[in-house]
Amino acid sequence: MTAMAKMPVKLDITIDPMKIQENNCCEEVLSVLKSVRPSWFDNEEAKSLKSKVFTGGISNQLYGYYQDGHFKDDVVLMRIYGSGTELMIDRDLEKQNIQILSAAGKSQPLYAAFDNGLVYGFAQGVTLDENTVRDERIRKLIAEEMIEVHAVRPEGREVKTGLWEKIYKFLELSPEGFNDPERNKQYLAKIKPKDVLRKELDELRVHLEALNSPVVFCHNDLLLKNIIYNEEKGCVYFIDHEYAMYNYEHFELGNHFCEYAGVDDLDFARYPDKEYQMEWLRYYLQQCAKHRKENPDTVSERDVEICYVKANKFALVAHMFWGLWGLVQAKHSAIDFGFLEYAQQKLDEYFARKEEFLALKLPS
Fold this sequence. Notes:
Blueprint: E1 9-10, H1 27-36, E2 49-54, E3 60-67, E4 76-81, H2 91-103, E5 110-114, E6 117-121, E7 126-127, H3 136-150, H4 163-173, H5 181-190, H6 194-209, E8 215-218, E9 227-230, E10 235-238, E11 245-248, H7 249-258, H8 274-291, H9 301-332, H10 339-358
Parallel strand pairs: 1-5
Antiparallel strand pairs: 2-3, 3-4, 4-6, 5-6, 7-9, 8-11, 9-10
């Protein structure tokens, strides 16, 4: 079991993101920073406080704070929750996840929680893109880090997948329509009715549960912007643990392959082909064997083929998961992003791949 890290500071402060401007902190932000970095305000260096707005996130707003000239030394991240995200994310569980993973060396520390956000450490490095994720060195580091996260065992939690509870909740929260006539017209024309999606989920659940994929502690959201590569240290970090929970191992694998398509400019032609996946999964399974203190040479082509079949079948539920998530965001989020279009593309890809992936056969 993995121990819990030190409890973060709890602050009764609400930050209005409309008040935040780069290099111009509002009173509430300063109050939070003073509680987690009091030394920054002990002398004249307090005047050199700098900030950076991080883009790329589509659920929350993210800001980095540091002293001028010390971006490489000490950055405090402040995440302000997006509107409506509490409907989909258990924020108390998220805080526990960060603490648990931090104690295991798999996350930056959590410093504080305020009414509508968190303050935590910064992982130095660069986020991945559609090209760097395919780099042989980096993709191997991703496989290794994934195995380390899967080995985490949160104390007191039942080893049981949370996938179905979460995805059916997304379905329930998804809208029946929109007040805006144009958006509603698009919704009715492009998104299948809830009863159709529920039937798909019910049938998919039966199919996937029969695969007996191991249940492990998963990140569950390994899109490219949630993977940081630190070239100097030769490692990767997984960030943003909002959806971390016990889940099927092959969901993590299939979902990660889905994320090769990107987010802002979804292109499912980037989904890795079988040759690429087999090479990726072969290394992953060999590293799994090493982690178990076994001989990696015992991993057979049959083992890799089984992993390939399961990962691609679980890619289907990953599309459904984030498609339904996108529908909920389209209804509630105030962030400027095409959530309805994103949801449509994800669900369309599910139906486009459904027959192909469900027909994959496990080797005898």
